[in-house]
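Course assignment 3, question 2. Fill in each field.
Student: A.L.
Task: Predict the tertiary structure for the chain below.
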Amino acid sequence: MKGQRIAWTRAQLTFIKRRKKRERRQLYAEFVKKFPRSGVSLVALCSLCKRSGWLTGPRTGRGKGIKPTIMAVAKLEHKLREKKTRAA
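Answer field:
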């Protein structure tokens, strides 16, 4: 079952659209500070931005600041060691 539709005011939509490039958590914190109302969650704000096509930045396939996991680093080091032993 779907939830209830949120009625966004023109002022709220304008506020969100002007700040659409910000991180969603930061945008949500600013939104709640300016428009104190219940029923609007971070998820609802994110969904609105997604439906409207307001993305936070370019989608190039490269993560911003994503660090490899420990397992990924270990696998790479293992492959490098294998190549070195084959070459020697």
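Instructor remarks: The chain has four helices and no strands. The mean pLDDT is 82.
Grade: pending
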